[in-house]
Amino acid sequence: MAGFLKLVCASFQHKGFHSARSHCKNRTGAEHLWLTRHLRDPFVKAAKVESYRCRSAFKLLEMNERHQILRPGLRVLDCGAAPGAWSQVAVRKVNAAGTDLSSPIGFVLGVDLLHIFPLEGATFLCPVDVTDPRTSQRILELLPGGRADVILSDMAPNATGVRDLDHDRLISLCLSLLGMTPDILHPGGTFLCKTWAGSQSRQLQRRLTEEFQRVRLIKPEASRKESSEVYFLATQYRGKKGAVKQ
Ligand SMILES: C[S@@+](CC[C@H](N)C(=O)[O-])C[C@H]1O[C@@H](n2cnc3c(N)ncnc32)[C@H](O)[C@@H]1O
């Protein structure tokens, strides 16, 4: 199903809304149900109208509206960036393309296992695995000043459908990324990551609380109600030595 989702996302991005139907003639019952719901989804329609690559743009827009995560001039690392909707939002909010001449210019670096089509104002490092130790070195080389002010992670492993297993895999992905923050995240910085709720969520929350001054759990409206998807927003990174510098 995850592969099917990526196919629909990619076809939606490049060939338009109607082409998603024509790609999926041999779909299973579950895929048919998913596609019917997808085509009726108001966020899918809004993403098409507003030229976002995926409906997930609205999750970040909403979280940003409520919690002011992004502002002009910030350096953003977007992990699990394909097909690029969060990067589109980030480019606009941090002014990475320099379109607002009166505001500071930010920077957006998107990273993914998959190829990402170019986006003005964003730099993409792909295909790479964020958890590969060689990737952090390349990230550091690409980020201006070798630091990000905000780390976003909408990463999700290919779902097996076994809820506990998928949950554990996503938590370990988040923990791996958190393990990279001392090298990448500027003290005072922000870390936003997607998880699927489950037994290991507390462990992730505990680790975040050790590293950040404030940790919140968020379920955006644009996140499907039936999904266990939730986001941890951790702010004011204490930094390597535990001191918050602004
Ligand atoms: C839900 S999609 C992200 C959608 C994206 N935020 C957007 O708005 O376009 C999850 C992405 O995480 C990526 N991913 C999963 N594990 C990864 C890893 N270890 N390293 C890099 N990317 C990964 C997948 O390839 C997939 O593209």
UniProtKB/TrEMBL annotation:
Keyword terms of this UniProt record: Methyltransferase, Mitochondrion, rRNA processing, S-adenosyl-L-methionine, Transferase, Transit peptide
Any idea which residues are catalytic in this one? 194 (proton acceptor)
Q: What processes in GO biological process is this protein linked to?
A: mitochondrial large ribosomal subunit assembly
Q: Which superkingdom does the taxonomy of this entry point to?
A: Eukaryota
Any idea where the Ribosomal RNA methyltransferase FtsJ domain is? 52-236
Localization annotation: Mitochondrion
Q: Does the keyword Electron transport apply?
A: no
**GO terms of molecular function:** rRNA (uridine-2'-O-)-methyltransferase activity
What single Pfam family name could you report for this chain, choosing any that match? FtsJ
According to UniProt, the reaction catalysed is: uridine(1369) in 16S rRNA + S-adenosyl-L-methionine = 2'-O-methyluridine(1369) in 16S rRNA + S-adenosyl-L-homocysteine + H(+)
Q: Name one GO cellular component term.
A: nucleolus
HAMAP family (UniProt xref): RNA_methyltr_E
Q: Give the protein's function.
A: S-adenosyl-L-methionine-dependent 2'-O-ribose methyltransferase that catalyzes the formation of 2'-O-methyluridine at position 1369 (Um1369) in the 16S mitochondrial large subunit ribosomal RNA (mtLSU rRNA), a universally conserved modification in the peptidyl transferase domain of the mtLSU rRNA. This activity may require prior 2'-O-methylguanosine modification at position 1370 (Gm1370) by MRM3. Essential for late-stage assembly of mtLSU required for efficient translation of mitochondrial DNA encoded proteins; methyltransferase activity is not required for this function.
Family named by the database record: Belongs to the class I-like SAM-binding methyltransferase superfamily. RNA methyltransferase RlmE family.
Q: What's the protein name?
A: rRNA methyltransferase 2, mitochondrial
Q: Quick one: which gene encodes this?
A: MRM2
